[in-house]
Each structure stands twice: as C-alpha cells, then as structure tokens.
Design a protein that fits this description.
heterodimer; A: alpha+beta; Alpha-Beta Plaits; four-stranded mixed beta sheet; 10 helices; B: Immunoglobulin-like; 4 helices; binds iron/sulfur cluster
C-alpha cells in the first residue's frame, strides 16, 4: 500500500499505488437543483455506447431518485455499511475509506459485487418521497422541505484514485495520461469482475456474452476533439458542465468554469468523498433537502454550497457561469461574466458561448394577424 | 535391443502394444507408491478418448493436494482440496485426465455467477530449471491450459446466456453489434479450453492458438476433464513433452459456487514432477 494525498478528505490515505496524476483531470459539475430525471442523458449514452446484445441492463449514465432509488440496488448503502461510520473534523475525514476498510488479505478494497437482479431496476424508488406524506392540497413553504426527494444523475467519476483500477489483478484498467479518463482495456480484460466489485459507485458493468467488463468511457473520442460528453451535451435541463479540474495543491484558475465552482466558490461537491477514490463528478447539492442527509452524501461543505447557490441571484459571476451550462457543445476552458453577459472560450481561445443573464422580455401582440387567433402566451 | 525410439501410432506393432500394457500393469503399483509425481504412461494402442473412456482407469492415479491461493490479492479458493491426475502418451500426443469432487456444477458466467474451471501449467521453455510454481517469472514463462465449464456448455450448445439474459422481443440491435461480439468471442474459440502464457501472477496472456483439445463431464458429484495436445508443437510458447524426459506441472481448480475466479482458486504450491514413459521397448519385453 502506498500513501497518497486526497484533498477531498483533507488528508493522506492508503492506496495500492504510489501517487501519480495525469496531465489534466477531466471533471464534471452536475446541478442537482435543475435535474428533472427526464433521462435524456441516460438514453443519449445508451444509444451511443450500450445498445448491444449483452448490454441491455447497462446504464453507464443513470438518474436515480434519492433517498430510495439506487442503481445497482443499494450500491451506496452497501458500501457505507461496509466501511462503517466516520466523522468529519474541520474538513478532515476521520473514518475508513474503501481502501482502508479492506481486510488486506482476500481483498485490496472493501467492495460489494451487485447481483443480476440489482441491475434490473434502474427506476427503483423513483419519485418516492420521504419525511412524511403530502395530503391533497398540502403545500411546502420553507427550505429545506420537510417532505422531499431529489434526482441524482450518475456517471463514472473518472476518479483520481480509481478503485476499479486498483482492484484489477491484470492491470487491464488504466487512467489516461492526457486527460485522466479511466478505461478498461477490452483486450486485457478477462471478466473477473474485480472492478465491478471494487467500484463503490457501481459503475463498471459486466457484459456476459463478451465475458468482459465495460464502463463509461468519458466519451473520449469527443473529449479528444474538445467536445463535451454525450450526457452533457444532450442534457435538456442544462444541468451539466464538463471540463478539467485542477489539483488544489497547485494553481487553481479563477477563470476556469470547473475550478471556479469546485475550488473557488466550493459550490460543487464530490459524491461520497469518504469512499476515498477522489471522484471527479461534482454536484451542486439540492437546496430543498435537509442538510444532515446531504452531509453523508457530499461531505461537510454542504451548508456553504447551499448558501452560496441560494445567493447566486446577487452573485453575477456565479449566476452567469451557471447560465453557460448547456449553451455550447465545446468544452469551455475560460469564462467571463461582464455587463450582464456570460461568455466562454475553448482551449484555442475561440469564443464558444455568449448568454445574457437576463433574457430581454419579448412581447407579442395578443392577436395573431396571420393565423387569426388569440395567443395564449404573449411573452 | 530395438533402437526405434518412436513409432507412429498407426504402425505400432500389436505385440508392442500388449507389452506396453503388461509394463503398465506392473508399473502402476510403483507410481502409486510415489504420489508426488505423475507418470505419463506410454500407450502405443492409442490414448483414452473422452473423460468417460474406461481405459483411464487402467492408468496410475496421482492425487495432488490443492491449497487456497494466498500470495496475491484477490486471495481465496481452497474449496477443492485435492485433484486426481492421470496421463498417457502415444509417442505423438499426450493426454491428461483431471478429476475432482464438486457437488455443484457451475456452467454459467453471469453478472454475479461464476463457473467451474481447471487448469494445468507447464514450463513453456524446455529448460531444466522449473520457474516459479506461481505461474512463472519474467524470464521463465509458463504455458497454461485452462478448461472451463461455461465454454464446455457453449461448445455443446448448452450455454445459458440466451435464457438468463433473454432477447426481449422488439428490442433491436445494430447489425454491427453481432459482428463485434463474434470478434470478441473468436479468440475464446469454441473449444472449451483456452491457452495462455504467463510470466508470473497477473500477467496471463491468452494465445490465439488451438493446440489443446479438451472435454469435460460432470456426473455424480465429480468433474472429469480431459486435455490433450501434441507432444511438441514447434511453438516456442508451448510446453514440450519428450518421451523419457522429465517435465513438471502445476494445477488449479476454480469452484464457481464459491465465487472462485482468477486469484480465488485452489492451487498446487509446488511443481509436480511429470515423467513420460519411453517409447523404447526392450526386446526382452516382447
Ligand atoms: S467511479 Fe468507479 S469505475 Fe469510475 S473511475 Fe471511479 S472507481 Fe473506477
Ligand atoms: S461520459 Fe459518455 S460514456 Fe460516460 S456516461 Fe456520459 S455519455 Fe456515457
């Protein structure tokens, strides 16, 4: 076991390999407040990558309802139970990661292998509420909501310290030097399912007719062309942004969309950082959900993130940046919000997006002369 | 003394075959007295065929102890404590019969279901020193033959993929998908055995060759698997077997119902010496 520094835990942790980082690390930010679980991302991914025989059950991208939904079934509860309870002390995680909770004998990583049926219910618990009932006519007038659920869109986290990679006895899994994308080499994979068991997010999936495991490929062919991934580009809720994230021990860029949200404003948080893999999909937590639940899921930064997000209305830069989500297929490398307009540029410095913070109102006459009808909607 | 060291199978004189059987009968006792080695009996009259061929019972049996694999993670196995080996050659080909107790045949590879399997390994280079018994080392490759129950079921047209993961009517696949699957499956082949070369744990590399034939059968709580190959293939990554010369083997068994796969296996911890009978039959034996 080596020792690596995990900034999400605020400490060093055990990992089977020495610390090594790619030139750049691909990262995503998902705004859970805007997700409507339309599953367009899920289908975009499925049509692109997993429409084959033997892949029927695979959703490299899935959207589940929390707290009751999960795909594969109970993926998170199973791992939380396995690693046991932990505490956060001043931003430092005092508890065991999946690497530290492993028995060290039979396994390197405390993992749980989901069964066939665990993959069979991607919409388990969908739209199920918790916290009480909503009788007819009831309405909620405060935050957080006493009765709630929220949608959690999930893809592979292309982790900084991937558990899948560490678990593979054949070194069939690798993290790309150029962008940190984690891939399973299909020609080396022998279908042992060690990665399926080790990944605490349930993201590698076994293809029985090929006898190999497959996982989200980070849409690397698009990435190589400077384009955002399918699940980002196709998202109709415009909840997603994709780019690269810096290691906070080095230089972070205030004008970079992902760095700004993750490191500067700390409004986007890793999912279950206590697992220890250093996931690189960052979530803006849902403001209507009671923070104790969110603490367990996103760590101790939840209150700060929610407060910052709720103040976005008075915060032109943050509001402008969030407007840029879903406004360009290209990866945005630099952004600027000035005079009520948000703009973004790609890595070549070519402008790829321009969005006003407030759309100028458009008024149309109530009567449509051409079609000789009254309009229902005039703005 | 005859000096012919090698007979072709078709021309093996009847008398020699009978002499071989007689020699076998008296040597069987001595092989049993030396349980750590495996004698490969010379059968000029041909090799036993499938796992059910009664002629296997005429050959001496070597029982090898198996232990859990505890060297590299994922560690595990140990569900199968011993493996019975029998072997014969006919001057051209060598055949092994592996038999072990397993109350539950597991012929399926599903998301969380694992299959039974067994493997033999031999030093790949005809070198005097045997490499590490843990699948060799950087300079000493090991040639591995692995039979598995799911490939066996598939070869017999009894694979369970289509029933366990049925094709839902109306679900349409891209036409290219089937050809990708065919490509991926091609190197696994239709034979229930795969051949590999390894340079130590974690380095197993499948080889696109079909030199070994195998067939397995489960009955009455026992798997019996036959693996057969030419004594020499001319391939530098293949083990070489020469009459009268010693060889070595390692073995592993996977118990699917215990979740055995890759490092989770029951293994031999040392090389098992293998001695091939000479094809030379002394005049006095005739
Ligand atoms: S989310 Fe899972 S599959 Fe993806 S890199 Fe992390 S450990 Fe590997
Ligand atoms: S990044 Fe690409 S492969 Fe990964 S979940 Fe999104 S669409 Fe699928």
């Amino acid at each position: 076991m080596g020792k690596v520094y995990n900034w999400q835990l605020g400490r060093e942790m055990a990992y089977p390999f020495e610390e090594a980082h790619p030139k750049r690390q691909v990262a995503w930010v998902f705004d859970t407040n805007k997700c409507i679980a339309c599953q367009t991302c899920t289908i975009a991914c499925k049509m692109t990558w997993t429409s084959g025989r033997g892949q029927e059950y695979m959703f490299w991208n899935n959207v589940e309802t929390k707290p009751y939904g999960s795909y594969p079934t109970a993926w998170d509860l199973a791992v939380l139970e396995k690693i046991g309870p932990g505490r956060w002390e001043q931003g430092v995680y005092r508890g065991r990661t999946i690497f530290e909770a492993a028995d060290g004998q039979a396994e390197r990583i405390a993992g749980v292998l989901p069964k066939d049926e665990d993959w069979a219910h991607p919409n388990l618990g969908e739209d199920e509420i918790t916290g009480g009932t909503m009788p007819r006519g009831a309405h909620i007038d405060r935050l957080p909501h006493p009765v709630w659920f929220f949608y959690l869109p999930r893809i592979c986290n292309h982790c900084t310290y991937p558990a899948c990679l560490a678990a593979c006895p054949r070194q069939a899994i690798y993290k790309r030097e150029e962008d940190g994308v984690v891939l399973i080499d299909q020609s080396r994979c022998r279908g042992y399912r060690e990665c399926v068991k080790a990944c605490p997010y349930g993201k590698p999936m076994f293809r029985p007719n090929h006898e190999t495991s497959e996982k989200c490929v980070g849409c690397y062919p698009k990435l190589e062309k400077g384009l955002q991934t399918q699940c980002v580009e196709q998202c109709i809720g415009k909840i997603r942004g994709q780019g690269f994230v810096s290691d906070p021990r080095g230089k972070i860029r205030e004008d970079h969309p992902i760095d700004y949200l993750v490191h500067v404003r700390k409004v986007a948080l890793p999912l279950y950082p206590q697992f220890g893999t250093g996931p690189n999909v960052y979530y803006i937590p849902p403001i209507h959900v009671p923070p104790p639940y969110l603490h367990q899921m996103f760590g101790p930064g939840v209150e700060h993130a929610i407060e910052t997000y709720r103040n976005a209305r008075q915060d032109e830069t943050l509001a402008g940046l969030l407007q840029l989500f879903g406004s360009s297929p290209e990866i945005m490398d630099r952004f600027e919000v000035k005079d009520g307009v948000a703009r973004a540029w790609d890595q070549q410095g070519i402008q790829v997006a321009e969005v006003p913070l407030v759309e100028p109102p458009q008024m149309r006459p109530a009567y449509d002369e051409k079609r000789k009808v009254y309009r229902l909607d005039v703005t | 003394m005859r000096t012919t060291s090698r007979w072709s199978r078709g021309r093996a004189p009847r008398t020699a075959a009978l002499a071989g059987l007689a020699a076998l009968a008296c040597l069987a006792g001595s092989a049993a007295a030396e349980p750590q080695g495996l004698r490969v009996v010379y059968r000029a009259d041909g090799l036993p065929a499938g796992p059910d061929d009664a002629r296997w019972q005429e050959l001496p049996q070597t029982q090898v102890e198996l232990s859990p694999q505890i060297i590299v993670p994922p560690k595990g196995g140990g569900g199968v404590a011993s493996l019975s080996l029998r072997a014969a050659h006919d001057g051209e080909r060598i055949a092994f019969l592996l038999a072990w107790r397993d109350p539950t045949p597991n012929r399926e590879v599903g998301v969380a279901s694992f299959r039974d399997a067994a493997a033999l390994g031999f030093p790949a280079l005809a070198s005097a020193t045997a490499p590490s018994p843990f699948m060799g080392d950087a300079d000493h490759p090991v040639n591995i033959w692995q039979w598995s129950a799911e490939l066996e079921a598939e070869a017999r047209g009894e694979g369970s993929f289509a029933t366990r993961y049925p094709h839902t009517p109306g679900v349409w696949y891209f036409p290219q998908d089937a050809s990708v699957t065919r490509q991926v499956r091609a190197w696994r082949g239709v034979a229930p055995v795969m051949e590999f070369v390894a340079h130590g744990y974690g380095t197993l590399r499948p080889r696109p060759v079909r030199n070994v034939l195998a067939s397995g059968r489960w009955a009455d709580g026992t798997w019996k698997v036959v693996m057969r190959r030419a004594l020499e293939t001319g391939d530098p990554e293949d083990a070489v077997f020469r009459p009268s010369e010693p060889q070595n083997l390692i073995a592993a068994v996977w118990e699917g119902s215990a979740g055995d796969v890759n490092g989770r296996k029951s293994v031999t911890l040392t090389w098992i010496p293998v001695q091939l009978d000479s094809t030379v039959v002394a005049d006095g034996d005739r």
